[in-house]
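wait is this the right file?? whatever heres the structure
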């Protein structure tokens, strides 16, 4: 089965995006892993599959697969690329697009300056909703991993995040400690591990070891989770510029019960066809 795809990225977090509205698509975890390989395949952090919605009130459904082949609930940089893709492919001409994900509806909106703003929904903070094993909800928790104890905040943006504050993000042990946190037994569905350096009340630097993909150049839901964690710890104001290794995002959160808004770029690199 030959499928048309677009190669896209949001701040260097890269994707293969497939139109499953006009094409019949059958995916297997093995083939996703093969195509995700940067030497023997196309190479991507995540594969995004666009489908027709299940509920007629929505415009699309979109599914997210990490390059390890596993399907996950949410992807921030992917949401912006999804919006750019359905517009460029003329699947819709709506400026604000209602899209179903595995954890609810999100609404990306194309801005006049070319960026994409996304209502990423309300963050979930109760440990059971992340999910994270803890006796009670707290702003942060000590977690033992890789021979050390790390003070993490846990946040679900639809997908699970563990965020810690570090003095210097360039020196942070993202690979070793991130991998140990990703598969820590207190996270039964594994977790994305974020390392945040607070530069000012409206500016952070962030690196994320992503579940199922390793460290990426940027993680949109990771940026949302870091800002939520920083605001809850009293370190950040409502709107924060997030510097990632791939570029900058703007994240806003007005507090508990409110949605997180993420604004940033989405870029198409090339289109092609591949055997699935
Ligand atoms: N890169 C993404 C997150 C993709 C999913 C994540 N690795 C997970 O397993 O939850 C983003 O931009 O949010």
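ok assuming it is, sequence goes like this
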């Amino acid at each position: 089965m030959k499928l048309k795809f677009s190669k896209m990225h949001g701040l260097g977090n890269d994707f293969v995006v497939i139109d499953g509205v006009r094409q019949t698509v059958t995916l297997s975890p093995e083939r996703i892993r093969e195509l995700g390989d940067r030497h023997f395949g196309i190479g991507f952090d995540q594969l995004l599959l666009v489908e027709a919605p299940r509920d007629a009130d929505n415009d699309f459904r979109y599914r997210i697969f990490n390059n390890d082949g596993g399907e996950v609930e949410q992807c921030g940089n992917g949401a912006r690329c999804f919006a750019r893709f359905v517009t460029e492919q003329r699947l819709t001409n709506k400026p604000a697009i209602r899209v179903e994900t595995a954890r609810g509806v999100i609404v990306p909106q194309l801005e006049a300056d070319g960026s994409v703003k996304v209502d990423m929904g309300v963050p979930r903070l109760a440990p059971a909703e992340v999910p994270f094993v803890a006796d009670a909800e707290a702003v942060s928790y000590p977690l033992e991993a890789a021979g050390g104890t790390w003070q993490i905040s846990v946040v679900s943006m639809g997908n699970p995040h563990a965020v810690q504050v570090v003095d210097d993000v360039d020196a942070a042990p993202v690979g070793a400690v991130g991998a140990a946190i990703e598969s820590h037994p207190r996270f039964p569905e594994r977790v994305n591990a974020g390392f945040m350096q607070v530069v000012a009340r409206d500016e952070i630097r962030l690196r994320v070891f992503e579940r199922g993909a390793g460290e990426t150049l940027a993680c949109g839901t990771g940026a949302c989770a870091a800002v939520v964690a920083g605001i809850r710890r009293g370190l950040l104001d409502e709107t924060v510029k997030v510097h990632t290794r791939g570029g900058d995002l703007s994240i806003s959160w007005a507090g508990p019960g409110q949605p997180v808004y993420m604004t940033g770029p989405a870029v198409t690199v090339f289109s092609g066809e591949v055997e699935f």
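The chain has two domains: 2-119+265-275, 127-258. so i think its the right one actually
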